[in-house]
């Protein structure tokens, strides 16, 4: 699968594991700074908000650390490789990008570690990076081929028309997208996402954002539901989402890549399904829920959603309608800061294990998504409950981070 590494290279790379544990994030932060300074065109691919927030350097540091730990058995990190490769395919990362990344990663290791980064270490990491890059390129090529060869599939970006724009709450708006060319679109797995390419006024670089598909497949359109984030020019978290909310209207064009993602509904399981979402984390869950209802599934479905209050709670009416339509569906609502006018919710405060045990079954498939802190809380609760790892599924919005 990958280039065979010498025993000397393997041992040298493994010897750097403790150093990476201590300095990994400093190395990757420096790496991105140097690379973008010399290759600003790569800003067209990378989410610069994640760079400023430190999420991307932290995620890369975790990936490099894992690769060093398992350099003698890269098969062990294939699940991680597969997940990252899905994002890379969705972002149009190409083989020619890998030598650039490798060059600046070695520069960053040398400049951050100084004399501790001996010639032997740099040489070993250069060889190891080549082997790791080969694995990614191979896995990603298979994904590109699959995306292109499926019925209705395509490579790169395809123009879609916004055929409908619907306000779902004070902060979330849905965009219904149909292909401008009038052709068919491939199905997707409920829970997957697309990448949208956005050109902002007065911005030299395009902005790429990945948004979960929020409706079931097979409907002739893709729907994304976008939360408007608060942001500014200095802290541009909300630049793209605000542009979509305020500037993109019905009839406008949005280039997107084919659906991708490793977080999706296990449709082969017959277990009950528990969806646990926080804020806009409910968007992939809505796709899964819509799918189960469309198929008239007899699986019991529990939809647990946490939000600040009713004004920012999206799809509340849709879920209530599903409950009326399908006896197998029931929902619970948690508001952290309800308004006096909010009467229809089940718990004030936050989700905790004691409450969760009382409202959902243990022998279920658990899916959860939301802000990082929310996800850590839910993951810890499920771990404390002893839910088997194979029944726990989650999605990060943005770079993959650790929940531990």
UniProtKB/TrEMBL annotation:
Binds 1 FAD per subunit. Residues 152-404 are annotated as: Reductase. Residues 155-266 form the FAD-binding FR-type domain. InterPro entries: FAD-bd_FR_type, FNR_nucleotide-bd, Globin, Globin-like_sf, Globin/Proto, Hmp, OxRdtase_FAD/NAD-bd, Riboflavin_synthase-like_b-brl. One of its GO terms (molecular function) is heme binding. It catalyses: 2 nitric oxide + NADH + 2 O2 = 2 nitrate + NAD(+) + H(+); 2 nitric oxide + NADPH + 2 O2 = 2 nitrate + NADP(+) + H(+). Keywords: Detoxification, FAD, Flavoprotein, Heme, Iron, Metal-binding, NAD, NADP, Oxidoreductase, Oxygen transport, Transport. It comes from the Bacteria. Heme b binds at residue 88. NADP(+) binds at residues 279-284. FAD binds at residues 193, 209-212, 396-399. Residues 4-141 form the Globin domain. Its EC number is 1.14.12.17. GO terms for biological process: cellular response to nitrosative stress; nitric oxide catabolic process; response to toxic substance. The active site is at residues 98, 140. Its cofactor is FAD; heme b. The record marks 87, 395 as: Influences the redox potential of the prosthetic heme and FAD groups. The record marks 32 as: Involved in heme-bound ligand stabilization and O-O bond activation. SUPFAM superfamilies: Ferredoxin reductase-like, C-terminal NADP-linked domain (SSF52343), Globin-like (SSF46458), Riboflavin synthase domain-like (SSF63380). Consists of two distinct domains; an N-terminal heme-containing oxygen-binding domain and a C-terminal reductase domain with binding sites for FAD and NAD(P)H. Is involved in NO detoxification in an aerobic process, termed nitric oxide dioxygenase (NOD) reaction that utilizes O(2) and NAD(P)H to convert NO to nitrate, which protects the bacterium from various noxious nitrogen compounds. Therefore, plays a central role in the inducible response to nitrosative stress. Belongs to the globin family. Two-domain flavohemoproteins subfamily. In the C-terminal section; belongs to the flavoprotein pyridine nucleotide cytochrome reductase family. This is Flavohemoprotein. It comes from Halobacillus andaensis.
């Amino acid at each position: 699968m990958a280039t065979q590494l010498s025993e000397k290279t393997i041992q040298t790379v493994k010897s750097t594991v403790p150093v990476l544990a201590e300095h990994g994030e400093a190395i990757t932060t420096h790496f991105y700074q140097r690379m973008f300074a010399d290759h600003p065109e790569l800003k067209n691919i990378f989410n610069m908000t994640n760079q400023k927030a430190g999420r991307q350097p932290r995620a890369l540091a975790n990936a490099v650390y894992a690769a060093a730990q398992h350099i003698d058995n890269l098969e062990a990190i294939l699940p991680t490789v597969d997940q990252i490769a899905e994002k890379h395919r969705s972002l149009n990362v190409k083989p020619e990008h890998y030598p650039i990344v490798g060059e600046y990663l070695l520069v960053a290791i040398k400049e951050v570690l100084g004399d501790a980064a001996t010639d032997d270490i740099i040489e070993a990491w250069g060889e190891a990076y080549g082997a790791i890059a080969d694995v990614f390129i191979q896995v990603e090529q298979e994904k590109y081929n699959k995306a292109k060869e499926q019925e209705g599939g395509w490579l790169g970006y395809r123009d879609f028309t916004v055929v409908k724009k619907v306000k779902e709450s004070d902060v979330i708006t849905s965009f219904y997208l149909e292909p401008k060319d009038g052709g068919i679109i491939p199905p997707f797995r409920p829970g997957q996402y697309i990448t949208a390419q956005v050109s902002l006024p007065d911005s030299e670089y395009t902005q790429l954002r990945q948004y979960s598909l929020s409706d079931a497949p097979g409907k002739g359109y893709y729907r994304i539901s976008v939360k408007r984030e608060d942001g500014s020019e200095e802290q541009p978290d909300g630049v793209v989402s605000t542009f979509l909310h305020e500037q993109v209207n019905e009839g406008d064009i949005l280039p997107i890549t084919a659906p991708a993602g490793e977080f999706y509904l296990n449709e082969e399981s017959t277990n009950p399904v528990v969806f646990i979402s926080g804020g806009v984390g409910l968007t992939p869950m809505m796709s899964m829920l819509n799918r189960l209802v469309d198929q008239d599934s007899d699986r019991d479905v529990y939809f647990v959603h946490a939000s600040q209050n009713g004004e920012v709670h999206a799809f509340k009416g849709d879920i209530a309608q599903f409950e009326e339509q399908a006896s197998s569906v029931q929902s619970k609502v948690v508001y952290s800061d309800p308004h006096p006018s909010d009467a229809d919710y089940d718990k004030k405060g936050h989700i905790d294990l004691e409450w969760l045990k009382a409202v959902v079954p243990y022998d279920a498939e658990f899916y959860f998504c939301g802000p990082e802190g929310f996800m850590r809380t839910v993951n810890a609760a499920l771990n404390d409950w002893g839910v088997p790892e194979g029944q726990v599924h989650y999605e990060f919005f943005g770079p993959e981070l650790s929940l531990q």
